[in-house]
Amino acid sequence: MKEQLVSRCSAGLSAVLLTVPLEEPVENEEEILDYMKCLFDPEVQKYIMILFTHGDDLEDLDQTIEEYLKKKDHADLQHLVTECDGKFHSFNNRSKSDRQKQELLHKIEEMMVKNGRRFIMKQMKRRSSMDVAAVMSSGESPAEDPDETDVIPDSKDQIRLVLLGKTGVGKSATGNTIIGRNLFKTSAGSKSETKQCQSKTRVRFGKEIALIDTPGLYDTKLSEDEIKIKIGECITFTSPGPHAFIIVIKVGRFTEEEKNTVKKLKEVFGEQMVNYSMILFTHEKQLKKKNLTIEQYLEEGEPALKELVESCGNRYFCLDNELPSFPQFKDLIRKIETMVAENGHFSNEMFEEAEKCIQEIQKKKLNEKEKRFKRRHKGVKQSEWKKMYWRLAEESRREAKKTFSDSFMAELLMHPHVKGSDIRKALEQVVTLEEKESTIKEAQLEGFRHAEAVQLAITATRKIAKQKMCSVQ
Ligand SMILES: Nc1nc2c(ncn2[C@@H]2O[C@H](COP(=O)(O)OP(=O)(O)OP(=O)(O)O)[C@@H](O)[C@H]2O)c(=O)[nH]1
Ligand SMILES: [Mg+2]
Q1: Which Pfam families does the entry mention (predicted)?
Q2: What does residue 64 show for φ and ψ, rounded to 5 degrees?
């Protein structure tokens, strides 16, 4: 792409127009902006103007582009405009009027006068190809010959993160900041919002980010055991293991309970989890109001908080979920990548069992898909089959994870007396979600508390699993 640009614009560039459709929420524009700076030179920023299309939507809303950008939920667009030094123009491609074109040309001329000269490509400093490769990396699996490998592919460039912490500290909001979309529901009041582990995946800045939001620790409505079980269920989504446990804490509010956070989490995931943990502070604006840096806050604040950070290898990050997400995401992901480079991903017996189970199901599903595909597409070319194979493998993995989580296995594995090897063979349809739920309901009708009901369900589920195993064999 760079060569093409150099050859076609050898006389230099007057302006670069970054086209952003107004009707869509911001997609990868910030990444594109960053990519352009990497590809050319950071100086190119002075020549970039945002051209918003679908200007006719504004007419329907009876708003000017300035009014539209000022809205609270358009913070990402505002940030994009700020990144381009406030240079933008709105276009309605359906309109036949020449006025909008003249206005655009006028703005470009103003920009040219301000910049004093064109952006000359020959003068660009050479960027290392590594920079560009990093941005371009697609996360695709390697193109090995599927018929010669028995290894089921895993997403190589995926970064799996689990968000943990007390209710209301901003776990879900942090999830949204990291993923760059409002995909996790955040709470409006003081009551707990997130009730179950939830996973969302998005490719951002060339990395596939799998984010797992968890219910709040110390939720008043659930017993400690129930919370541990619920949090442990994240193993389903993070298999073969998370790269980082992100322990979220709100600045200015470090409670007595939170002092025990790491202890509690170690009870769920084991001692080693601290080597993969990072403390993430939310509500950074509160610190800024007091003119404090996070370092000063830690130094001058409660010793217990400093100890908590130290127990996580002194890894911490501070952000504000009310501010634009991309710059914060970029800094955070760099920190996490350093962690990943040192450590790889976390695992323990529970995660290993879960991974074995998932792979078992995946293999079966992939086998079926492969047979079906080859039956339907007799004489398929090897190159096409290669592409198809990786797609089917990824699809099978997604489905396997879903089957695994629906089948109550994650919960089963949370209990030390339940061995994954006992039940692995019968995984595919052994325990359906309906069976799990009806068993719990029955136990609750009998007057058991939820935690006890879960225990009973586990015993009952094992029986069902065994019965099914026998009938399958
Ligand atoms: N100003 C500001 N508000 C924030 C920040 N982070 C979260 N909030 C707000 O705090 C409230 C709680 O945030 P959530 O993300 O729902 O908290 P949570 O930890 O997921 O809560 P549970 O799901 O109940 O465990 C929401 O109204 C968020 O908008 C931040 O950094 N700054
Ligand atoms: Mg939440």
Answers
A1: AIG1
A2: -85, 165
pLDDT digits (tens, 9 = 90+) for 177-210: 999 888 899 987 767 777 778 889 888 877 889 9
Is residue 20 pLDDT above 90, yes or no? Answer: no
- Choose which residue among 174, 287, 321, 325 to substitute to test ligand 1 binding: the one with the highest number of ligand atoms within 8 A of its C-beta: 321
Shortest CA distance to 280 belongs to which of 323, 236, 258, 248? 248
- What does the alpha-carbon distance between residue 178 and residue 333 come to, in Å, rounded to a whole number? 8
Domains and CATH numbers, the chain: 2-129 (3.40.50.300), 149-343 (3.40.50.300), 349-472 (no CATH)
Cβ atoms of residues 382 and 144 within 8 Å: no
What CA–CA distance (Å, rounded) separates 285 from 33? 26
What integer pLDDT is reported at residue 211 of this predicted model? 93
Q: Phi-psi category of 344—alpha, beta or left, where left has phi over 0 and alpha has psi -120 to 50? A: left
Alpha helices in 270-348, H assignment, sequence order: 284-289, 294-300, 303-311, 325-343
Element (DSSP H or E) covering residue 409: helix 409-413
Q: Identity (one letter) of the amino acid at 387?
A: K
Round the average pLDDT of the chain to a whole number and report it: 77
Q: Give the pLDDT confidence score for residue 415 in this predicted structure.
A: 56
Determine if ligand 1 sits within 6 Å of the CB of residue 328. Answer: no
The answer to whether 6 and 57 are in contact (CB under 8 A) is no
At 37, list the tokens.
């700076």
Residue having the nearest C-alpha atom to atom 24 of ligand 1? 192
The predicted structure's pLDDT at residue 449 = 59
Task: Indicate whether residue 347 lines ligand 1 (CB < 6 A).
Answer: no
Q: Is the model's pLDDT at 305 over the cut of 90?
A: yes
